[in-house]
Amino acid sequence: MKYRQVHLDFHTSEKIEGIGEKFSKAQFQKALQKGCVDSITLFSKCHHGWAYHPSKANEIHPNLDFDLLGEQIEAAHELGVKTPVYLSAGFDEKIARRHPEWIVRMKDDSMLWTKSFLEPGYHKLCINTPYLDYLLEQIKEVCENYEADGIFLDIIGVQPCYCKHCRETMEQEGMDPFKGEEVIALAERVYANYAMRVRETIDRVKPGLPVFHNGGHIRRGRRDLASMNSHLELESLPTGGWGYDHFPLSAAYARTLGVEYLSMTGKFHQSWGEFGGFKHPNALRYEASLSVANGAGVSIGDQLHPSGEMDMATYALIGKAYEELSLEEPWLLGAENIADIGVLSAEAVLEKSSGFIDKIALEEAAKLADIGAARILLEGHYLFNVIDDEEDFSRYSLMILPDIIFLDEELKNKLGQYVEQGGKLLSTGSSGLDRDKTEFQLNFGIRYLGENKFRPDYFRPGFTIQDLETSAFVMYSQGYEIETVSGKELGSRENPYFNRTATSFCSHLHSPSRNEKDGPGMVSGKDGIYISWEVFRDYATTGSLILKRMVQYALDQLLKDKATIRTSLPAQGIVTLAKQKNRYVVHLLYGVPVKRGRNTEVIEDIQPLYEIEVQLNSREKIKRIYLAPEELDLNYTQEKGIVGFKVPKLALHQMIVAEY
Question: Rounded to whole angstroms, how far apart are CA atoms 522 and 490?
Answer without folding.
Answer: 5
